[in-house]
Write a structure and sequence with these properties.
By secondary structure, this protein is mostly helical. 70% of the residues lie in helices and 0% in strands.
């Protein structure tokens, strides 16, 4: 008898998260998406048919790790229509197909080298993710742990699923190696913006505190716009995970590892102020939360792009471990740059919907 996840049937979150994660994988695989060329087909098949001469254990680990969430999400998504083993098998095959397609396309990008080892590692990652989808996550969903929580804490309908997906992407932006805490939407280099003030420690600390606090308040507004009742039950774990991910990024992406590189005086002040402001705002109605979140988002992006460069931070960034983290750091930077625009559109949509919405 075929069984499917009741949570997956009621919620589009798994589908949205799957699409978002596939988009991230595609961009990371083809990064930097420049200087495309027509490859030698003979050389391409030679590279795919031989064991690479140079590889590192970190490359192997990252290739496995990158496709594990894909296998998990695809398995959960396919469980709505297929039996357990059928969903897991198809998820692994789709993961392999995506990996093979990306390795083929990498031949057109001079900075990337196609490798059969990458396909194998990606397939192993998809298999691990599919196994987790069957052995751990799916029973949790089907038993109603997450579905009951969603029913009790979030608004009904697809808007909550989009909001959860955006919160997941915001967590991904915290893996960006730039130490600024909760800072997203940096387009200074893209638009060649001029700082509004010259650098001084006092000015920089004040601006960093404002960006951190406003960034936290923006996420609080987004989370609060899809929650009802005790919205802190959604926000607290999201912020805790964000701090953990930021620490992991600083530990692994810098040499030597500096897990608390983000914990500057400005970030600390902003974290305290943003937390206090978020607690106050989340006591209001969802429409107020969305409005404050949108305003805070605009302030955070504006201040981030008008802030002067920190020369001491520039020296710190010289010890970035680019190398095999090159495409990963580039992808997190792009997602971080685009996230405020997506969040702003969502919050505007929420403001247009909230007056007529009814909660459970």
């Amino acid at each position: 008898m075929r069984t499917t996840s009741r949570f997956a049937r009621r919620s589009a979150f798994v589908r949205y998260a799957s699409v978002a994660y596939v988009a991230v994988v595609l961009y990371a695989s083809l990064y930097p998406l420049t200087s495309w060329r027509t490859p030698s087909h003979e050389l391409l098949w030679v590279r795919l048919g031989e064991w690479p001469r140079y590889y590192t254990y970190s490359d192997v680990f990252l290739n496995v790790l990158a496709y594990a969430p894909l296998g998990l999400l695809l398995t959960l998504m396919l469980r709505t229509r297929l039996p357990a083993m059928g969903a897991a098998t198809l998820a692994v095959l789709l993961g392999l197909a995506v990996s093979f397609g990306m390795e083929i396309l990498q031949a057109w990008v001079p900075a990337r080298v196609p490798s059969a080892l990458d396909i194998f590692c990606n397939g192993v990652g998809a298999l691990i993710g599919a196994w987790i989808g069957l052995a751990v996550a799916e029973p949790m969903l089907e038993d109603g742990v997450l579905s009951r929580w969603r029913h009790a804490r979030l608004v009904a309908g697809g808007r909550a699923d989009v909001g959860l997906t955006l919160l997941g992407l915001w967590l991904f932006t915290q893996l960006n190696a730039a130490p600024g805490l909760f800072a997203t939407g940096d387009v200074k280099a893209l638009l060649d913006l001029t700082p509004a003030a010259s650098y001084s420690p006092r000015v920089y600390i004040a601006l960093e505190a404002a960006v951190t606090g406003a960034g936290l308040l923006a996420v609080s507004g987004l989370a609060g716009s899809i929650a009802h009742g005790r919205a802190l039950t959604l926000l607290v774990p999201v912020v805790a995970i964000a701090l953990i991910l930021k620490s992991l990024a600083c530990a692994f992406l810098f040499n030597p590892g500096q897990p608390f590189l983000w914990a500057t005086p400005g970030a600390g002040i902003g974290l305290v102020i943003g937390t206090a402001a978020s607690i106050l705002v989340l006591r209001g109605r969802p429409r107020l939360r969305a409005f404050v979140g949108l305003a805070a988002l605009a302030v955070a992006v504006l201040l981030l792009n008008l802030a002067p460069d920190n020369p001491y931070l520039d020296e710190t960034l010289q010890v970035w471990r680019h190398g095999h983290f090159w495409s990963f750091t580039g992808t997190t930077a792009v997602v971080s740059m685009l996230w405020p625009a997506a969040a702003a559109i969502f919050l505007l949509w929420s403001l247009s919907r909230l007056p007529s919405e009814r909660t459970h």
